[in-house]
Amino acid sequence: MPILPARPPILASLAMAGILLWPIPRDGIGAEPGGRAEQAILPPNLAPAPAPPPPQVPPGPPRAPVPAPISEGTLRVMQEAAAPPSVKASIRQARERVQANRLTFQVGFTSASTRTLSQLAGTRPPPDLKAAAALQNRVADSELARHPKLLVARARLVSAGVVADPTLAKFDWSQLDVVGSVKDQKFCGDCWDFATVGVFESMYAIRNGARDNLLDLSEEQLLRCNTESPKGTCCGGWWGFDFIKDSGLVGNVKLPYASGSVECLGGQLSAGVPGCDPSLPGRRYKATTWGYVSAANEVPTPAQIKQALCEHGPLIAAVNVTDQFQHYTSGLFDEQDPGEINHAVMIVGWNQLGWIVRNSWGPGWGQAGYINIAFDSNKIGFGAAWVEPVIFAGN
Q1: Helix, strand, or coil (residue 197)
Q2: How large is the average pLDDT for residues 69-92?
Q3: Both ends of the chain: CA-CA distance in Å?
């Protein structure tokens, strides 16, 4: 019987403790005869416990599918279906008139559909517009002659690659980042206010460094503080450039628009507008002068308006708006209604079909707040006017 080699003391101790030794390969290093070495095998009471299984996380609720985006057209259909009966009837009648007259635009529910034209359209021209325009243009000619930086500012636009040419098939200032975002006058009939401020904002940007100087100025200040005759209110007004020339406008953050809930009811305001604070803090941005596109024609010709758009940027102008205009959603607005003008807008350019116009009824009206209106539709261009800002130092 072969005699096994004596175990080292540590191994003997393990054996006495009941820990078995089992031979395992060791690659010939320190192996016992036969090429095997010993490995300790722990008895059950000393063996390490197996690792616990990972905790089971209860499954969460099933993830809801992501709804497909609703198109603007579908949303308008849904809004019309949920509108009050009177609004539905107004849209239906407008749609019938469009179809009966074979017009080329579409109508439906808009952000203006739940308001009335008396709330939306508050532009009132001077009693004798031609005489007022002739006088204002004489003043403007004199002031332009003392505006030495104007020619330099125009030359800078050309050098920057802005080609404003009235012979072009289309031109649009809103595509050059010099027209502010569409705003909403809400229930107050101060469209004249929003168009005045919008045109001035654009011209300040054009003359003072384009997009880097596109301001957001206070319509509320012009509404409260304008004392020109006739004073503009939520019941109506006319171009407010004289106030901007004399007093200047502060930024919208200094005096945000707060009069959207004031309505014109039977020629009377539903609530008082707070008074003007002449010590309103903040830098004031002023106009140098302003003038009418034509003193001879209440509605200038398309050629005259295009020339003014190229020379003076976006224009303020009046138009006759109807229920069809109120519910306009897309297409070329080509209505021929003989009614009087009642609303102010910004003309920002043209295409082969008509004028490109920015409105003040929010982006939920028309084409994201804009309308393409035929050159001869509803007296568009009535009283068209331009404004030139103060050009600050360095420009």
Answers
A1: helix
A2: 92
A3: 113
Beta bridge partners of 355: 350, 373
pLDDT band at 374 (very low <50, low <70, confident <90, very high): very high
C-alpha span between 33 and 17 (Å, rounded)? 25
Q: How far apart are CA 278 and CA 45, in angstroms?
A: 93
Q: Which helix (H) or strand (E) holds 288?
A: strand 287-292
Give the relative orientation of helices 85-100 and 72-82 as an angle to the nearest 10 degrees. 120
Place of tokens 């101790």: 13
Could you count the other beta carbons within 10 Å of the beta carbon of residue 351? 14
Task: Calculate what percentage of the chain has a pLDDT beyond 90.
Answer: 65
User: What angle do helix axes 191-207 and 149-159 make, rounded to 10 degrees?
Assistant: 80
On whether the CB atoms of residues 386 and 291 are closer than 8 A, the answer is yes
Cβ of 147: how many Cβ atoms within 10 Å? 16
**Beta strands 343-350; 354-358: pairing state:** antiparallel
Cα–Cα distances in Å, from 207 out to 48, 129, 158? 83, 28, 12
Three-class secondary structure of residue 195 per DSSP: helix
Give the C-alpha separation, 133 to 386, whole Å.
Answer: 12
* H or E element, residue 374: strand 370-374
Residues 159-169 have a mean pLDDT of 86
Q: CA angle, 43 as apex, 37 and 49 as ends, to 5°?
A: 110
By CB atoms closer than 10 A (0-12, 13-18, 19+), residue 15 is middle
What element of type H or E holds 221?
Answer: helix 219-225
pTM: 0.82
107: buried, middle or exposed (CB in 10 Å: 19+, 13-18, 0-12)? buried
pLDDT digits (tens, 9 = 90+) for 266-310: 787 888 777 888 788 889 999 999 999 999 999 999 999 999 999
Cα→Cα distances 236→193, 240, 296, 328, Å: 9, 12, 24, 22
